[in-house]
Amino acid sequence: MGDYSNMASYYDVIMTSGYYDYAKIVDNLVLQENVESILEIGCGTGLILQELIQRKPHLQISGIDLTASMLAIAQERLKSFSNIVLSQQNVCDLHLPKVHDLIFSYGGVWYFVVDGDSEPFLVSHIAEHEANVQGIEKMAQHLSAKGDLLLGIQGPHHDYETVISNGTKYSQKIDPTDIGFTKHYYLFDGSKTLMAQTVKYRTYKLGEVEKMLSQHGLIYQPETRENKLFLRFSRA
After folding, report:
1. Are 158 and 113 in contact (CB under 8 A)?
2. What sections of 78-203 are H helices per DSSP?
3. Mean pLDDT for each consecutive 10-residue tract of the chain (236 residues)?
4. Rg (CA), the chain
5. How far is 191 from 140, CA to CA, in rounded Å?
6. In the chain, which ranges are continuous DSSP H helix?
7. pLDDT for res 1
8. Which residues contact 85 (CB under 8 A, 6 or more apart)?
């Protein structure tokens, strides 16, 4: 699984410079009914959870992330919320003391890419197939009997660069591989390279994902609602 240690110090400024719309992400999360406990797989620096707890302060929230430096920022950001518990864990070895009504990942470990009318495909930060199977099994063990899994939807990835809010230049480059793609992230201050990070991703067709999740009772629930930012898989 990709380790984002090199990116941690710059993650917030990149993500909040238009990379993600956190208000819209949480708009989609709070639509879910009868939810008392939520787990985020790959919580990064806690930006989604901060927005979520401000909207739904009664929720019991868990967040996991593999990268210690990311998690340290999240711990500081969310330290005033006693009902948020964060831990450094690999989803493939996930162990938490309780199950959750809702589990979600928005770019953290698994997410879908939708390109026009083409069928969605899953992008995984986990390059090895058997590790994905194990991660899905561990995740499913932490979902309640009538729980939902929400996996984020993003647009197609492509090479681009842009100047972000602090005046530095963010750049990314995509290289296809036989199992998915490799993504190179850069941050430049003039001619100086502030950050360079390379992550290998694995991709799956929607049907392959449905088959893996159905083995744990999770069934794809297509929705026609416009502007949705997650695909939903449900046990209900």
Report:
1. no
2. 129-141
3. 59 64 90 92 94 95 94 94 96 96 94 89 95 97 96 88 85 94 89 89 97 97 87 89
4. 17
5. 46
6. 8-14, 22-29, 47-55, 68-77, 129-141, 206-214
7. 56
8. 61, 62, 63
